[in-house]
Task: inverse folding
Protein backbone atom coordinates (compact mmCIF):
# COMPACT_ATOMS: atom_id res chain seq x y z
CA UNK A 1 0.00 0.00 0.00
CA UNK A 2 2.43 2.65 -1.11
CA UNK A 3 -0.37 5.23 -1.50
CA UNK A 4 -0.75 5.59 2.29
CA UNK A 5 2.24 7.88 2.81
CA UNK A 6 1.24 10.11 -0.07
CA UNK A 7 -2.39 10.24 1.03
CA UNK A 8 -1.56 11.26 4.59
CA UNK A 9 0.25 14.41 3.51
CA UNK A 10 -1.20 15.26 0.12
CA UNK A 11 -4.68 16.00 1.46
CA UNK A 12 -3.17 18.73 3.61
CA UNK A 13 -1.20 20.12 0.68
CA UNK A 14 -4.34 19.93 -1.51
CA UNK A 15 -6.32 21.99 1.02
CA UNK A 16 -3.40 24.42 1.27
CA UNK A 17 -3.29 24.81 -2.54
CA UNK A 18 -7.04 25.45 -2.60
CA UNK A 19 -6.69 28.06 0.17
CA UNK A 20 -3.97 29.86 -1.79
CA UNK A 21 -6.31 30.17 -4.80
CA UNK A 22 -8.85 32.22 -2.82
CA UNK A 23 -8.74 35.98 -3.14
CA UNK A 24 -10.78 36.80 -0.05
CA UNK A 25 -9.58 36.67 3.55
CA UNK A 26 -9.19 33.27 5.14
CA UNK A 27 -9.97 33.05 8.84
CA UNK A 28 -8.41 30.04 10.58
CA UNK A 29 -9.20 28.83 14.09
CA UNK A 30 -7.49 26.05 16.05
CA UNK A 31 -10.12 24.15 18.04
CA UNK A 32 -8.53 21.47 20.23
CA UNK A 33 -5.37 20.71 18.29
CA UNK A 34 -3.74 21.67 14.99
CA UNK A 35 -1.24 18.90 14.34
CA UNK A 36 1.16 18.57 11.39
CA UNK A 37 -0.62 19.59 8.20
CA UNK A 38 -3.41 21.21 10.24
CA UNK A 39 -0.77 23.48 11.80
CA UNK A 40 0.30 24.55 8.30
CA UNK A 41 -3.31 25.28 7.35
CA UNK A 42 -3.75 27.30 10.55
CA UNK A 43 -0.65 29.38 9.77
CA UNK A 44 -1.69 29.83 6.12
CA UNK A 45 -4.73 31.91 7.03
CA UNK A 46 -4.80 35.64 6.42
CA UNK A 47 -2.43 37.48 8.77
CA UNK A 48 -4.45 39.03 11.57
CA UNK A 49 -7.20 36.42 11.07
CA UNK A 50 -5.43 33.35 12.51
CA UNK A 51 -6.80 32.35 15.91
CA UNK A 52 -6.49 29.68 18.59
CA UNK A 53 -8.95 28.91 21.33
CA UNK A 54 -7.39 29.39 24.79
CA UNK A 55 -6.88 25.69 25.55
CA UNK A 56 -5.86 24.54 22.07
CA UNK A 57 -2.48 23.19 21.05
CA UNK A 58 -0.52 23.44 17.82
CA UNK A 59 2.13 20.91 16.86
CA UNK A 60 4.81 21.14 14.20
CA UNK A 61 6.11 17.69 13.35
CA UNK A 62 7.72 15.78 10.51
CA UNK A 63 5.52 13.78 8.15
CA UNK A 64 4.74 10.32 9.48
CA UNK A 65 5.31 7.07 7.62
CA UNK A 66 2.81 4.40 8.68
CA UNK A 67 4.10 0.90 9.18
CA UNK A 68 2.94 -1.48 6.48
CA UNK A 69 4.51 -4.75 7.47
CA UNK A 70 7.54 -6.16 5.74
CA UNK A 71 8.80 -4.08 2.84
CA UNK A 72 11.58 -4.55 0.36
CA UNK A 73 14.59 -2.28 0.82
CA UNK A 74 13.70 -0.44 -2.40
CA UNK A 75 10.18 0.30 -1.09
CA UNK A 76 11.59 1.64 2.19
CA UNK A 77 13.95 3.87 0.21
CA UNK A 78 11.12 5.19 -1.99
CA UNK A 79 8.96 6.01 1.05
CA UNK A 80 11.86 7.66 2.85
CA UNK A 81 12.63 9.86 -0.18
CA UNK A 82 8.99 10.92 -0.45
CA UNK A 83 8.80 11.68 3.28
CA UNK A 84 11.90 13.89 3.02
CA UNK A 85 10.47 15.75 0.01
CA UNK A 86 7.23 16.38 1.90
CA UNK A 87 9.11 17.42 5.05
CA UNK A 88 11.15 19.96 3.09
CA UNK A 89 8.00 21.33 1.44
CA UNK A 90 6.31 21.62 4.84
CA UNK A 91 9.37 23.45 6.26
CA UNK A 92 9.38 25.94 3.36
CA UNK A 93 5.65 26.67 3.64
CA UNK A 94 5.72 27.03 7.43
CA UNK A 95 8.69 29.39 7.13
CA UNK A 96 6.78 31.47 4.59
CA UNK A 97 3.64 31.78 6.72
CA UNK A 98 5.26 32.17 10.15
CA UNK A 99 7.99 34.57 9.08
CA UNK A 100 10.67 32.33 10.59
CA UNK A 101 13.85 31.38 8.73
CA UNK A 102 13.80 27.96 7.05
CA UNK A 103 16.61 26.86 9.38
CA UNK A 104 14.55 27.71 12.47
CA UNK A 105 11.53 25.75 11.25
CA UNK A 106 13.70 22.79 10.21
CA UNK A 107 15.35 22.86 13.63
CA UNK A 108 12.13 22.80 15.65
CA UNK A 109 10.72 20.10 13.37
CA UNK A 110 13.48 17.65 14.34
CA UNK A 111 11.33 16.68 17.33
CA UNK A 112 7.60 17.29 17.93
CA UNK A 113 7.24 21.02 18.71
CA UNK A 114 4.15 21.66 20.84
CA UNK A 115 2.78 25.18 21.20
CA UNK A 116 0.14 26.62 23.46
CA UNK A 117 -1.57 29.76 22.10
CA UNK A 118 1.08 32.12 23.54
CA UNK A 119 3.94 30.12 22.03
CA UNK A 120 2.04 29.84 18.72
CA UNK A 121 1.71 33.64 18.60
CA UNK A 122 5.42 34.04 19.35
CA UNK A 123 6.33 31.54 16.61
CA UNK A 124 4.02 33.23 14.08
CA UNK A 125 1.50 30.40 13.61
CA UNK A 126 -1.44 32.49 14.86
CA UNK A 127 -2.12 36.12 15.62
CA UNK A 128 -4.60 36.07 18.50
CA UNK A 129 -6.17 33.95 21.19
CA UNK A 130 -9.91 33.76 20.59
CA UNK A 131 -11.69 34.47 23.87
CA UNK A 132 -15.46 34.24 24.15
CA UNK A 133 -17.09 37.02 22.17
CA UNK A 134 -13.83 38.89 21.68
CA UNK A 135 -13.55 38.66 17.88
CA UNK A 136 -16.00 38.60 15.01
CA UNK A 137 -14.38 35.85 12.96
CA UNK A 138 -17.00 35.68 10.23
CA UNK A 139 -17.17 38.47 7.66
CA UNK A 140 -20.52 39.74 6.51
CA UNK A 141 -21.38 38.92 2.87
CA UNK A 142 -21.04 42.61 1.96
CA UNK A 143 -17.32 42.42 2.83
CA UNK A 144 -16.55 39.28 0.81
CA UNK A 145 -15.56 41.16 -2.33
CA UNK A 146 -14.07 44.24 -0.63
CA UNK A 147 -10.91 42.78 0.87
CA UNK A 148 -8.75 40.79 -1.52
CA UNK A 149 -6.40 38.34 0.17
CA UNK A 150 -2.72 39.34 0.33
Result:
Amino acid sequence: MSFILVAMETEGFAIYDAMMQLRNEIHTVAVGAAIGQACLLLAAGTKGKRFMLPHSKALIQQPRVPSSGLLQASDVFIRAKEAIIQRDMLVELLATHTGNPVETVANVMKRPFYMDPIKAIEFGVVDKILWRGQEDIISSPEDWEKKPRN
Q: What stands out?
A: DSSP finds five helices and six strands in the chain. Residues 3-131 form a domain with the 2-enoyl-CoA Hydratase; Chain A, domain 1 fold (CATH 3.90.226.10). The longest strand covers residues 57-60.
